[in-house]
C-alpha cells in the first residue's frame, strides 16, 4: 500500500498515526500480510457442508481468535481527532478515493454513542432473557441510512484493494495426526479490518471503535445495577458474563448472490471456560445492505433456547438436522437490512445464514447490489466464569 502517497484523515502522513485501532506492537503474527496468508476467517467452526467430516471439527476459530485478537488502543483524543479530521479533510490531498468523499468522516461520534447508550438497557434485558437482541425496522436508531451507505462503500473500497480472502472452515480429519482438511465457503469472502484500513474505511474503523468503547461498559453496568437492586442474576435464560473492551475480533464479510450461505453453527464452541482459548462472548453484527428487500434471502436465522446438549450436536458428534428435538426449536429470521444491528451470545446461540439471493442472475450489476455485506465484532468475556 502506498502509505507515503496518502494523506490520512488526521492530516498526518504516516500510516500508524492514523490508526484508531492499533494492534499490540510486539506480536509479529499480527501483521496483516502474515495474517491474511495463514489464516482462515472465523467462524471457522461452522459445520461444513460435508456432513461426514463435521465431527472432530477443529476449534480453529478459537485458536485463530486468540492469536489474531486485536487489542484496542483507543486514542484518548478520539473525538477531537475525528472532529478535526472531518473539518480539515477538505484540505487533504488525498490520492485515494476522494472523489466520492470516502475519506470524509460521516459518523457522529456523539450520536452513535448516545444511541447505543439509550438502547443498552433493552439490549441487556433481551440478551439476558433471550440470548439475542436486534433493533427493528426502519433500523435508523443506531446509524442513519447515509452512514450505512458510506460504510458499504468503504467495504467495497476495501474489496477493490484486494483485502478480502476466500472464507473457509477447517476440520480435523485425523484425530491422531491432527491432519486437517480445508473447506471453502463458496461465495463468501472476508477480511479483518484494522487500524491500517483507516485511510480507506475511516467510518468503519470509527464505528468499531465507538461500539467497543461504549457497549461493554454500558452492558456491564446494567448487570451491576440489576445485581445491586436485588433482582439478582440468572433470572433470565442465560447468566450475564461481564465483557472486556480491551480486545476484540472483527470480520467484514461479503456473501455473494446466487445462493451462498453459512451453515448452522455456534461461533465460540469451546465456551467461556477456564483454560478456553476462545473467550468470545458477544457477537455484534451490523448489516450494510441498504437496498435489501424481502425475497432477497440471506436472513440470519437464530435458534432460540437450544439446550447445551443439543448445541454440542451442532458442532460435532451428530448432524444437528437429524435431531428431532432441535428441529422443533424455535427460531427467528432476521433480514440483513442496512442499519440492522444484531447482538447474540457467541458461545450459546446457534445460527445460520440462509441462501443469499438464490435466484440472482449473473448480471454483474445485480450481483453487486445483492452482495450481502456484514460487519461482525466479537467482544470477549472479561474472564472465564462458567
Ligand atoms: O452474517 C451473518 O449474518 C452471520 C455470519 C456468521 O454467522 C459468522 O460470521 O459467524
Ligand atoms: Fe456465526
UniProtKB/TrEMBL annotation:
Domain of life: Eukaryota
Matches recorded under PROSITE patterns: FE2OG_OXY (PS51471)
Record keywords, A-Z: Dioxygenase, Iron, Metal-binding, Oxidoreductase, Vitamin C
Pfam families with a match to the protein in the record: 2OG-FeII_Oxy_3
Domain annotation Fe2OG dioxygenase: ranges: 246-381
Species assigned in the record: Discostella pseudostelligera
Region: Disordered, residue numbers: 1-102
Residue ranges, compositional bias (Polar residues): 60-84
Record's protein name: Fe2OG dioxygenase domain-containing protein
Ranges of biased composition (kind: Low complexity): 1-18, 85-98
Cofactor: L-ascorbate
UniProt biased composition (Basic residues): 50-59
Molecular function GO terms recorded: dioxygenase activity; L-ascorbic acid binding; metal ion binding
Amino acid at each position: 500500500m502506498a502509505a507515503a502517497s496518502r494523506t490520512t484523515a488526521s492530516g498526518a502522513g504516516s500510516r500508524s498515526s492514523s490508526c484508531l485501532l492499533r494492534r499490540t506492537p510486539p506480536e509479529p503474527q499480527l501483521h496483516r500480510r502474515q495474517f491474511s496468508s495463514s489464516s482462515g476467517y472465523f467462524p471457522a467452526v461452522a459445520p461444513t457442508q460435508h456432513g461426514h467430516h463435521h465431527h472432530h471439527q477443529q476449534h480453529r476459530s478459537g485458536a485463530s481468535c486468540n492469536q489474531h485478537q486485536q487489542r484496542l488502543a483507543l486514542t484518548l483524543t478520539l473525538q477531537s481527532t475525528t472532529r478535526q479530521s472531518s473539518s480539515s479533510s477538505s484540505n487533504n490531498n488525498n490520492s485515494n478515493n476522494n472523489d466520492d468523499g470516502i475519506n470524509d468522516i460521516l459518523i457522529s461520534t456523539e450520536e452513535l454513542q448516545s444511541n447505543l447508550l439509550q438502547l443498552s438497557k433493552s439490549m441487556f434485558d433481551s440478551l439476558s432473557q433471550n440470548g439475542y437482541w436486534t433493533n427493528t425496522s426502519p433500523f435508523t436508531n443506531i446509524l442513519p441510512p447515509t452512514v450505512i451507505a458510506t460504510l458499504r462503500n468503504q467495504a467495497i473500497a476495501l474489496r477493490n484493494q484486494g483485502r478480502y480472502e476466500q472464507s473457509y472452515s477447517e476440520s480435523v480429519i485425523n484425530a491422531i495426526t491432527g491432519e486437517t482438511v480445508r473447506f471453502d465457503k463458496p461465495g463468501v469472502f472476508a477480511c479483518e479490518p484494522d487500524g491500517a484500513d483507516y485511510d480507506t474505511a475511516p467510518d468503519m474503523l470509527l464505528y468499531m471503535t465507538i461500539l467497543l468503547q461504549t457497549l461493554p461498559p454500558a452492558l456491564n453496568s446494567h448487570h451491576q445495577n440489576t445485581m445491586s437492586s436485588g433482582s439478582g442474576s440468572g433470572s433470565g435464560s442465560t447468566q450475564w458474563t461481564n465483557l472486556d473492551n480491551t480486545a476484540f475480533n472483527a470480520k467484514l464479510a461479503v456473501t455473494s448472490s446466487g445462493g451462498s450461505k453459512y451453515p448452522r453453527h455456534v461461533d465460540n464452541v469451546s465456551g467461556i471456560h477456564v483454560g478456553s482459548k476462545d473467550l468470545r462472548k458477544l457477537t455484534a453484527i451490523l448489516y450494510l445492505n441498504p437496498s435489501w428487500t424481502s425475497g432477497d434471502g440471506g436472513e440470519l436465522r437464530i435458534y432460540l433456547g437450544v439446550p447445551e446438549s443439543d448445541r454440542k450436536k451442532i458442532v460435532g458428534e451428530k448432524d444437528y438436522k437429524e435431531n428431532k428435538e432441535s428441529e422443533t426449536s424455535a427460531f427467528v429470521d432476521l433480514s440483513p437490512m442496512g442499519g440492522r444491528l444484531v447482538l447474540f451470545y457467541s458461545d450459546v446461540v446457534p445460527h445460520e445464514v440462509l441462501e443469499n439471493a438464490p435466484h440472482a442472475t449473473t448480471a454483474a450489476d445485480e450481483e453487486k447490489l445483492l452482495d450481502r455485506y456484514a460487519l461482525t465484532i466479537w467482544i470477549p468475556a472479561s474472564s472465564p466464569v462458567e
